[in-house]
Design goal:
343 residues, four-stranded antiparallel sheet, 11 helices, disordered N terminus, six-stranded parallel sheet
Length: 343
Amino acid sequence: MPFLVTRLARLVRVRLPGWRLPLAVAVVVFLTSWAAMALVEPDDTGIAAPGTYWWYFVVTAATVGYGDVFPASTAGRLVGAYVIVGGIVTLTLLFTQLSAALQSVKGKRLRGLVDLDLADHVVLFGYTPGRTARIVAELTAEGRAHVVLCTSDDVPEDPLPERLDVDFVRGDLTSPDVMDRACVARARTAVVDVGDDNEALAVALAVTHANPDVHLVAALRDLGRLDTLRYVHPDVQAVQWHMPYLLTEEATDPGIAQVYSDLMTSGGHGNTYSAHLPAGFAQHTFGDCQTWFGRTFGATVIALRTDRRLVVSPGWDTPVPEGATLYYVAPRRIETARLTGGR
């Protein structure tokens, strides 16, 4: 007999997969108990009436038992016990199925197989332990962006599961499937930080095909490949691979990479210089220095170094002691002799 029951249970599970099994149990228990209650319970209780029995079944099967409707006969109480057992079985099956469904969704999310529904987000392609976590931390600082991390199949599960502001997509980084699941077509920015420059070119091509208007930023080992990359996306911005902080700044504030490149290139529109202030320098606050440098030399002062420390963009009321060093951006270096001029 136990063998037959086991075989029957297996057969039912095979024939009624998923949510069908708890639904079938509830329907069978409802119909059989209703018929049994109508046979054994006196008519004057009214419990088997169509408008009453469904309520009795729900509260009894859920083991709530309000007591507003109840059987009066012993046989009716046995039917009620049958309803209680059937309800427990149904609820158990429901919770088991719900748990399995939630676990399945969680498993798919951890494996990067879920289709996302996002817009105006940042898609980060590529994963390097440690480096990617720092890039993500910068991209999401101050709640500025929601990030979708896309990795190859070499990364089996979400490497940043604790980050609620980061979604995970796994697969071939150049495939339309990954582009669709990561919602690249509706993304604000795409950051390509992959294993080598050839892969970066391939991913950039796939991203541009999915969203020609996306703000595209790529980390390159050889910045000489930038011209080739611009055949793919004319407005792409590239940064040196070993400067991940610049990668995140460009992704967050488009154009920053061009500013840095101009400042660090001798042929740019402005270069960064330092000036050790000579005795007799007439400006005594950072605001005075900023105004005088700007009006006199067309320069912008960006930092101040004293004996104590270096301060970038200090307040305008910050004192500038004699012998301090100023750092400024200007078309050319300012000769020290010119710094002793009047206000």
